Amino acid sequence: MGLLDETIINIVILQCVVLAISTIVGIVAFGFAMAMTPFFLLFLDAKMVVEINLILTFVLFTLIFFRSGRCVDTKLMSVLLLGGLVGIGPGVALIYFADETFLRILLIVVVLGTAIFATRNQQSLFKNQKHVTFIVGATFAAFKASMALGGPILAIFALNQRWSARETRAFLSCFFMVIDAIIIMSHGLVGILGVHELKASVLFVPPLLVGNFISSLIVRSMNERIFRRLMLIALMLSSSIVLFRQIIEYV
Prior knowledge:
This protein is mainly alpha-helical. It has one domain (3-250). The chain is built from eleven helices and no strands. It is globular. It starts with 7 loop residues before the first helix and ends with a helix.
């Protein structure tokens, strides 16, 4: 099931969803793949969904990073990236060897698991505990390399560092940008990512750019308290979207 085989109406619907979600993600700097996955899965196979999400998140977070002032805790980022490098290998192996049914089920389990984690208010698990930084990086990268998911895990970690809104956006977007670039290259090297996936992804770049532009206007007038609240709302909203889809699917 390929995107290029879908009707124009279906593609336009997905482009509108990308516009809306990229606007929200441009503000909070995480959750694009988690929110888009349920919509993409309506029309595409799981492996195609992973590749499109990887490319679009790389583009979006690169844009967010370069407009966030690049204020990043380099020491903390180094530990996260080291963990991320360890996690990428197992993640790539999983998507390479897993069949479609297993990957689709795993996508659902990971997203719903993250939703439960967020609703149980487990943010304090990561609060100022630098020794878990490596584990967070490795876990995120494994999920990202295999399913293009994992953003909420890092978002909860970042929230509990008590950074400013600008620092949070810069840190999250920097990490996502670097890890996405490495994963995209590794997927290309093993043959998971090809021309077909790149062509499909290009269809969603224009609405992504528009969404990013809209979000850049919104963040200029946003205070710290509203930003933190929006991050928590985004955690719940992206999780609820997946839960709703699963309820509809099995009723």
